[in-house]
């Protein structure tokens, strides 16, 4: 009942009993019951007046249901037309994605080739520098063979 649990309802009733006293609570309950009954009657009167007005203007229940079904079908057709055109956008999206992936793979392939060429060139240069350094540090005139040094 309106999201109120049993414990909360008992607490509310206890507070009402303390505020108004035991002699006023039955009067308040009677008054609230009459008010709810009047509200229900007023709601039913309004519904019947609307139904009488619809009948007087030529709207019967079948005509109203047909009208709502037509409106619903129109809404659904508009939805399908709007959502049906996404297939074109889907094709364009897949084309862009494939082109981006192709360009990316081309760029990565060129970069890998360039890195390999640079790496090979650098290692050749390092080997040449190492050979030159070794040649400069070891004199060519002497050859060390065992304990005897010989001149060339």
From TrEMBL:
Which superkingdom does the taxonomy of this entry point to?
Bacteria
GO CC: one term? membrane
Query: Has UniProt tagged this entry with the keyword Cell membrane?
Result: no
Q: Name one Pfam family in it.
A: TatA_B_E
Q: Which UniProt keywords apply?
A: Membrane, Protein transport, Translocation, Transmembrane, Transmembrane helix, Transport
Q: What compartments host this protein?
A: Membrane
Where is it mainly found?
membrane
Its membrane topology? Single-pass membrane protein
Give me the segments passing through the membrane.
6-22
Per the UniProt record, the source organism is Flavobacterium soyangense
Is Cell cycle among this UniProt entry's keywords?
Answer: no
* Protein name according to UniProt: Twin-arginine translocase TatA/TatE family subunit
Q: Which InterPro entries match?
A: TatA/B/E
Q: Please, one GO biological process term? A: protein transport
């Amino acid at each position: 009942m309106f999201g109120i649990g049993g414990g909360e309802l008992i607490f509310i009733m206890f507070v009402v009993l303390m505020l108004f006293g035991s002699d006023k609570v039955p009067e308040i309950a009677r008054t609230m019951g009459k008010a709810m009954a009047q509200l229900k009657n007023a709601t039913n009167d309004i519904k019947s007046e609307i139904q009488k007005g619809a009948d007087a203007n030529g709207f019967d229940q079948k005509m109203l249901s047909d009208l709502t079904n037509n409106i619903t079908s129109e809404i659904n057709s508009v939805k399908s037309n709007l959502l049906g055109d996404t297939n074109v956008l889907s094709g364009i999206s897949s084309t862009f994605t494939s082109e981006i992936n192709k360009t990316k793979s081309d760029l990565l392939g060129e970069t890998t080739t360039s890195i390999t060429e640079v790496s090979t060139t650098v290692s050749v240069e390092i080997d040449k520098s190492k050979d030159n350094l070794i040649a400069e540090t070891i004199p060519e005139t002497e050859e060390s063979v065992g304990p005897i040094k010989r001149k060339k």
